[in-house]
Amino acid sequence: MKVKKPQQKPRWVEEETAYLRQTWGRFEPSRVAAVLGKSQGAVRLMAQRLCLPPWRRARFSQLSLSSEEKAYLAGLFDGEGSIMLRKSFCRGYQCWQPHLNITNTSLPLMRWVEKAIQCPIRACLNKDPARQRDGMKIDAFSSDRVQEILRAVLPCLIAKKAQAELLLEFYSVHQFHGTNSREEEIYQELRLLNKKGPKVCK
User: Fold this and answer.
1) Could you tell me which residues are beta bridge partners of residue 124?
2) Which residues, 6 or more positions from 199, have their beta carbon under 8 angstroms from its beta carbon?
3) Coarse DSSP helix, strand, coil percentages of the chain, rounded to the nearest 5 percent
4) Is the entire prediction scored with pTM above 0.85?
5) Are 29 and 55 in contact (CB under 8 A)?
6) pLDDT digit string, tens, across residues 68-118
């Protein structure tokens, strides 16, 4: 009679812990667990071992911006912001991460943005402190918040209008399980639009 050996729990590999660090607090634990092929309990336990903060559902109140504030925010995205779509792979799964940010060195300005879009300020160290001051960055990762911000500023965007339209289209075609060709096309189009070109002024 054969005795069944107890199944060993799959160990975490470096790629999985890196993905957990990157997505913790941005995606639901159930989504992270599904991508990693692990239970929610295992994901939460590893988050504790990595000393990650307790996960809490982000609670945003609806944006309340005047038409002037929407136009001003759109100007900041055109001049000081980024509208991106990032791609990563984990356990054979392709993962997408829409991302908005605004960077500036003015604290009063960034405090206004923080209040307007309800996303926190974080430090942004400059690589060349001799030529430029350290700045501040505000990031938006939450799916609901990103879409709400884009819809608010879209009518007033100029330089980043195409990026905003593509990212909103991404949300309309995105599939949680699996991927489709349009997602990849949007990713490549956004990369091309965001590609830095040669300097035209000395």
Assistant:
1) 135
2) none
3) 45, 15, 35
4) no
5) yes
6) 999 999 999 999 999 999 887 766 667 788 899 999 989 899 999 999 998
Element at 75 (helix H, strand E) = helix 67-80
Give the C-alpha separation, 160 to 194, whole Å: 9
Q: By the 8 A CB rule, do 137 and 103 touch? A: yes
pLDDT digits (tens, 9 = 90+) for 147-189: 999 999 999 999 999 999 999 999 998 866 556 789 999 999 9
Does residue 113 contact residue 38 with C-beta atoms inside 8 Å?
no
CA neighbor of 82 nearest in space, from 194, 187, 200: 194
CATH superfamily of this structure's domain 67-103+141-194: Homing endonucleases (3.10.28.10)
- Tokens for 157, please give them: 């965007």
Domain ranges of the chain: 14-49, 67-103+141-194
With residue 140 as reference, give the H or E element that holds it.
Answer: strand 135-140
Closest to 121 (Cα-Cα) out of 141, 136, 142, 106: 136
